[in-house]
Amino acid sequence: MKSIYNDLSWSFLVASPSFSGPFFEEAVILLLEDNEDGSFGVIVNKPTGKTLGELGSEFENELACVEVFDGGPVSPEHVSLAICSESGKNEGAFSFGVPPEKALEILKKDSSAKIAAFAGYTGWGPNQLQGEINEGTWIVSNADIDAMLSLSSKELWKHAILKEMKQFEGLQEPENPPELN
Predict the structure, then answer these.
(1) Contacts of range 46-54, beta carbons closer than 8 Å, 24 or more positions apart
(2) Is the dihedral of CA 53, 116, 75, 26 positive or negative?
(3) Alpha carbon 101 to chain centroid distance?
(4) Which of 40, 70, 43 shows the shortest CA–CA distance to 55?
(5) pTM of the entire structure?
(6) Phi-psi region of 10 (alpha: psi -120 to 50; beta: other; left: phi over 0)
(7) What are phi and psi of 159, to 5 degrees?
(8) Do the strands 94-96 and 47-51 form a parallel or antiparallel pair, or are they unpaired?
(9) Is 128 in a helix, a strand, or coil?
(10) Largest Cα–Cα distance in the chain?
(11) What is the pLDDT of residues 138-158, one digit of tens each?
(12) Distance of alpha carbon 56 from the chain centroid
């Protein structure tokens, strides 16, 4: 009998407060795909301090000023674009892996759209991520795209941790439970 896989795609992985390490300390990862074959996502709160224009001539256009984030330690030379529409019929739509030409097309239609760039990604083999979650390395949270786009990189991790702590506190038994008759 095949067990049902708990797909965590489009969740946030929030680094546990006890986690330390060069890439993932206070990291928030947008988990883009999670299945029985493995998982991958991008760190959304680690800016590199660079813009797309500094990375290459193919971005010498309206995308030149887009901030680049350190998406993770795998393939850091590969840059992926994400875009979120802010108005119109696609308001709130979020797309990852958008080609530069398509991003420019969307920007022409919706000048308020927000674009982010990610150098590299994070990845896990089969069952590896679930093992790290079970060990307490990652806290799984609903992805909050609004917070991701509106909060500073430092604020995002704190926001996600506090949100999960509040949820956890709400599930705790009260200190003085009512007596049952």
Answers:
(1) 46/70, 46/153, 47/153, 48/119, 52/79, 52/117
(2) positive
(3) 23
(4) 70
(5) 0.85
(6) left
(7) -60, -50
(8) unpaired
(9) helix
(10) 74
(11) 999 999 888 988 899 989 999
(12) 24
